[in-house]
Specification:
- Belongs to the ZC3H12 family.
- This is ZC12D ribonuclease.
- This protein is of the alpha/beta class.
- It has three domains: 42 residues; 155 residues, Rossmann fold; 36 residues, no CATH class.
- Helix content is 41%, strand content 11%.
- The protein is built from 14 helices and eleven strands.
Length: 309
Amino acid sequence: VHQSKLDFFCKLGYGKQDICRVLENLGQEALEDDVLKELIRMGSKPQALDSQAQPSPLKLVARGSCSTSPVPQWLGEEEGDSSSHLRPIVIDGSNVAMSHGNKEVFSCWGIRLAVDWFRERGHTYIKVFVPLWRKEPPRQDSPIADQHILEELEKQSILVYTPSRKVKGKRVVCYDDRYIVKVAYEKDGVIVSNDHYRDLQNENPEWKWFIEQRLLMYSFVSNRFMPPDDPLGRHGPTLNNFLSKKPVLPEPTWQPCPYGKKCTYGNKCKFYHPERPHQAQLSVADELRAKTKVPVSLGKEEEMCNHSP
């Protein structure tokens, strides 16, 4: 009896010492309810309750994984970053500035207008490449307007100067276009320029495809930076899809039939007919029968009689 009661309360999670102490006080023939009340009165708790009283620290588990190891930080960056679906932007600073200055003045204000336009859209990775010699004081043959804007963008880690130096009084300038295309290609971004980079297209076939598909041209209209709504033509993607990593497909729209009610294609017509409810496209013969209120069965019998020998 003592062993059976000991096993019973051990299964409930109570310690053997507490159970033996209660059985000595109440006797071996004490009822189980009395033993349980005495254990509760003594303040003894089952081990399961003790473990629940001390909650273990929460651990994040990756979806679909059975391990309790914490999730790496990079897994949650894409969900938390609202701009993760937007492509990086690489701006040809010289091309944009000269376009805004009407090809006469290097207008730094045009670069600011382009950067602000992409900032308002939510792009976080924006890089502008300008030759280093543009930091020098302006000259008559190369005037610069609003040069302080370059310093502001450089402090914001947006503007990057391509290297240049002077050797024996002559300026040696590195090819900034190669910087622009290379960074945009590695970042899988968009090049903002009106230059076609034909020389770089001939150098690398991969760059050729990338320049053809990721070059965003633009215009300045009354100090307003305006890229086209169809960067790759009328049949290409929209501007939103062009600047997004995950393009949104438009809903299919039905084009109305140019012939209208005079269409003779019947159910083979690929266009939309508003006079046909739920696109119930009928053949010409069925439409004529419906207009004359002739049942279809009679029409079929007449056709069988005509075809019979």
